[in-house]
Amino acid sequence: MSFDIAQLRREVAQHGRVCRIVIIDAKGSVPRDTGVEMRVWANGQSGTIGGGVLEYEATQDARALLTAEQSRTLRKQPLGPALGQCCGGAVTVLWEVFDAQTLPDFAASDTAYMRKVAADAASAPPTAMINAVNRGLHHTIWADGWLAEPLTPAPVPVWIYGAGHVGRAVAATLSPLPDIAVTLIDTQADRFPDPLPVGVTPAISARPADIAHHAPQTAHHLIMTYSHTFDLELCHALLGHHFASVGLIGSATKWARFQSRLRGFGHTKDQINRITCPIGEPNLGKHPQEIAIGVARALLLDRADMTARSEIAS
Q1: Which residues, 6+ apart, have CB-to-CB distance to 273 below 8 Å?
Q2: I need a surface site. Which of 93, 132, 212, 312 has the fewest CB within 10 A?
Q3: Which of 4, 28, 2 is closest to 87 using CA atoms?
Q4: Smallest Cα–Cα separation from 182: which of 208, 165, 163?
Q5: First-to-final CA distance of the chain
Q6: pLDDT tens for each residue of the chain, 314 residues long
Q7: Phi, psi torsion values for 22, nearest 5 degrees
């Protein structure tokens, strides 16, 4: 979990004063982990810290703080009889109010947001916290009244070609994830769902392969158009472009034919094998939502593996 300054800036610009609620420490049996957050404004909210009554009361406290003189509250909350719950654990919750004047400003090289949040905090952050930040922080640290949160990196771009049943299901499944940016591509405006899932960017191209070259080099591509011709053109175009991954929807027969055609276009076996076909997890089934769940699981596992490797390297 991380401090998403881009999301907070958007919400402050739209709603004015926003209270951010974050779990900075969690012990025992708790509904969510350290680092989870939500934001609350006068007439709305986004995100979740879980816990039912915990979240309800935290939201009420946030709305009260929005109109108070103070801008920060810190409290340890047992999740037991006092809340009518039987979790048995405890969380430390931080409420912070931000507006256009108090939003933190970060340099491009900053990777963490470290600040004093407790009234009785030590005069300087712990050495271990400073060292963790200097190495590249990957998780929230709370110690001696100081808090350090990793800053949210640029979202992972996922480009979905085809706004049919499967494309829509994949876009709707991935779009709520805070660190994934979904672009949905099709040939005509009337092929897109109305309304689009929140956070999905539409792109129209009469020939989808023409737009593929504009994708970031770190993008994951999922090919599922209504046309096998478009699908093949996209595979060919992307093999000549940098990408994180390429997935193609299709049967074993379709993939065998595509491999033959791609070899004819001059691509090597190793290059072609970078394309995954079929996408998702076939054992889950062929329903659009089953495919979407399999695709989402693969992306999340890949992200977790990359995070683990970066933590080991640091």
Answers
A1: none
A2: 312
A3: 28
A4: 163
A5: 18
A6: 789 998 899 999 999 999 999 999 988 877 778 899 999 999 999 989 886 888 999 999 999 999 998 899 999 988 765 555 555 678 899 999 999 999 999 987 888 999 999 999 999 999 999 999 998 888 899 999 999 999 987 788 999 999 999 999 999 999 988 789 999 999 999 999 999 998 899 999 999 999 999 999 999 999 999 999 999 999 999 999 999 999 999 999 999 999 999 999 999 999 999 999 999 888 998 899 999 999 999 988 887 776 665 555 55
A7: -140, 140
CB atoms under 10 Å from CB of 28, counted, come to 12
CA 202 to chain centre: 18
Tokens of 306: 């990359």
Cβ atoms 279, 247 nearer than 8 A: yes
